[in-house]
Predict the structure of tRNA (guanine-N(1)-)-methyltransferase.
Amino acid sequence: MRIDLITIFPEFFSVLDVSLLGKARQAELVQTRVHDLRDYAAFKADGSPDVHRTVDDAPFGGGAGMVMKPDVWGKAIDDVLEPGGVLVIPSPAGTLFTQALAADLATAPQLVFACGRYEGIDARVAEHYAAAGHRVLEVSLGDYVLNGGEVAAFAMTEAVTRLIPGFMGNAQSIVEESHADGLLEYPSYTRPATWRGHDVPDILLSGHHARIEEWRHEQQLQRTRTRRPDLLPPEG
Ligand SMILES: COc1cc(COC(=O)c2cn[nH]c2)cc(-c2cccnc2)c1
């Protein structure tokens, strides 16, 4: 898989080379490229040089803040997005990012993250590439506003790449982790068996694997009921 990240802060993604993702890159499972949006703002729409490499302008209809220019984004995305690639726009106005969507995106040949700043990107950009037949997703990490899409893109990149076959050392750990079966993960413990007067649940020391599995599933249900009832199936 190729992952392209378009941003006005390319240095933000330099950490990609040292993260867990770094190992996958060496294994050629994932190629990441970072693109500076301002490289596509060197010339104005009339072809004259733009020494300021402007990427934003005032919103039509008024309102606070600035909007990112469609012509600049169009040049950048034209240069990067490949046939079959998915354009992902992190946004507070997007659909919620989930483990299921991460698994879906892990099968794409390319992801292009358009990292917006200011008040966002001119809406015609998403419209244009959808009309051109590309899969375009506006995706939210949650109900809060960030200053830019970079943090969200980084989180989504990690959530997706770790699901690429051959990336995670222990495939079983992916199957067992939170949200994989729609429920939150059970609590985990390791040595020492007693720590500051707190004991590990006896069942986990019993060696009865069937009972341990049953206990863990009950813990998952209990946790999901108390912390994330929205995840429970209707019969709950
Ligand atoms: C593409 O359009 C955007 C993108 C972002 C950055 O992403 C997030 O904040 C985010 C992504 N998942 N959850 C939150 C922020 C704004 C924005 C800023 C200020 C006021 N209104 C909107 C707009």
